[in-house]
Each structure stands twice: as structure tokens, then as C-alpha cells.
Amino acid sequence: MRVLIIDDQIPFLNVLSAMLMLIPDIEAVCSAQGGREGLKFAAEMQPDMVLTDYSMPEVDGMGVTRRLKASSRPPQVIMMSFHAEREYREMAVKAGVDAYLVKSDLDRDLVPTLKRLAAEASGRAGLRPAGSVAAPI
């Protein structure tokens, strides 16, 4: 799985990149500082998964998600935010995210979410194991 991380905070990008490199089945991790750079890298890299911050200057996570989902080969998108309130999650879902994670819970929720989305992607490709069920957002 090729993963692109988009966030405007360099320390967060570094920590999350290091964390993802330890996960089996992640073949490449690329980091972009902000939405504009992230969209450029996404066009070049064609990632399978994009983890994007909700709040960023210039192009925020909502704009990133809408543009990625409108592409000819849209990646799965996980929105990350410090906002745990339901209205933020609902806006992200309307923009087209595949999952919404609160940053304070990433250590607990990221790996299971990545595995679930990878299984869903395999299922769409006709490779879902018998008896498996994809969980909703």
C-alpha cells in the first residue's frame, strides 16, 4: 500500500511517517506539508491511501478530499483532526472521506482503520475473503 500523509505540521508528519513505516504491507510513505503540496504529490505518486489533516492553510482537508475523490483513480482518504465533535465528522463524510480519526486516538485507531480500508479495497476488487464484512465509517 502506498500512503501519502498531508499535514501542515512537520513534527506530526515525521512522527506519523515513522509510525507507518513500521506497519507491514506499507510499501511507501510520502509526506506533504499542506494541501497544495499534497495534491501535487498525489498526482505524481498515485497513492492507495491518503491521510490528510482537517485544518490547513491554503487548501484544507475538505478541499483535498473533494479533489482527490474527483480524480480518475481516487485513493481512499482518512481525515485526521483534533476535532472530536460529530459535526466535523459529518462534514468530512459529506466531502467523501473513507474514515475520520481524531488525532489524539491515532495510536489506537490508525492501524485497525488502515486494515479495514485495505480489506474493503480488496473486496471491491473481488478479493474479499469469504465471510468478511466491511465496517461502516
Topology diagram in text:
Blueprint: E1 2-7, H1 10-21, E2 28-33, H2 35-45, E3 49-53, H3 61-69, E4 76-81, H4 86-95, E5 99-102, H5 106-124
Helix pairs in contact: 2-3
Account of the protein in words:
- The protein has helices at 10-21, 35-45, 61-69, 86-95, 106-124; strands at residues 2-7, 28-33, 49-53, 76-81, 99-102.
- Helix 3 links the parallel strand 3 and strand 4.
- Helix 2 (35-45) runs parallel beside helix 3 (61-69).
- The protein has a single domain (2-124), classed as Rossmann fold.
- With 137 residues, it is an alpha/beta fold.
- Strands 2-1-3-4-5 form a five-stranded parallel β-sheet, sandwiched between helices.
- Helices cover 45% and strands 20% of the residues.
- The protein has five helices and five strands.
Q: How many alpha or pi helices?
A: 5
Strand order, sheet with most strands: 2-1-3-4-5
- Give the terminus-to-terminus CA distance: 20 Å
What is the CATH class name? Answer: Alpha Beta
The number of E-state strands comes to 5
Largest sheet: 5 strands, parallel
Beta-strand fraction estimate = 15-25%
Q: Per CATH, which architecture?
A: 3-Layer(aba) Sandwich
* Uncertain segments: 126-137
Q: Look at the structure and give the mean pLDDT.
A: 88
Structural class: alpha/beta
**CATH-wise, what's the superfamily?**
Response regulator
